[in-house]
Amino acid sequence: MRLNKYIADAGVCSRRKADELIANGNVKVNGATVTEYGIQVEKGDVVSVNGTVVEEPSAKVYVAINKPLGYITSMDDDKGRATVAELVDDIPERLFPVGRLDYNTTGLLIMTNDGQLTYTLTHPKHEVWKTYVAVVAGVLSDTRIAKLRKGVDIGGFVTSPAKVKVIKQMPRHAVVEIKIHEGKNRQVRKMFAAVGNKVQSLERTAIGDVRLGRLMSGHYRKLSRQEIEYLKSL
Ligand code: URA
User: Fold this and answer.
1) Which residues are catalytic?
2) Which residue from 65, 73, 132, 191 has its CB within 8 A of the most atoms of ligand 1, so it is best to mutate?
3) Would you say the CB of residue 188 lies under 6 angstroms from ligand 1?
4) Tens digit of pLDDT for each residue in 216-232?
5) pTM for the predicted model, two decimal places
6) Would the CB of 105 count as within 6 Å of ligand 1?
């Protein structure tokens, strides 16, 4: 692995910053200062940055979990609530959730130790579409659908046009698929509230083209090579 990637993958800093550190003579390989960032690091080599040994980067792991109700999207909780970390605790690498889902939202959450991918998927400029299925109270009229498709004010923020499809309208509630590419706090709940339909349940079914599919609640699966390549390409 190239030296700059080794340092970045170990979580020390970004690859660009690693290039700087190397160029400035802050990096040693096996005790010798190296100023060429493209140099290959072999297994067993000892890399240090500013005198501190860099731990060998761990293998990248990418999983999709089906978050159940009543779990928080965080690694620990001071109130003692269940966390998504518990759902992947048989994986030795320390994985972090990519973005978040509310305590009461279920469905697809990606977890990884790839900081670069987390950045890509959560940065607003990348506009990754996320698909949710919501059960909302009442009738979702055409006027309300049109508002959601145009953008609604959720309190100081006007949402971008959403893609909305009513899957089933029943007398007292509707099942709706909604796709958004922003990630404001409780955004989908607030969007439906803004048009007058309270969300009764909310599930995320896809992130871009990565689908929840038949993954059982509380379970995880490793992402396929194609899914990982696809997410990295976004
Ligand atoms: N929108 C919400 O309101 N909640 C979520 O968990 C995700 C999107």
Assistant:
1) 102
2) 132
3) yes
4) 999 999 999 999 999 99
5) 0.83
6) yes
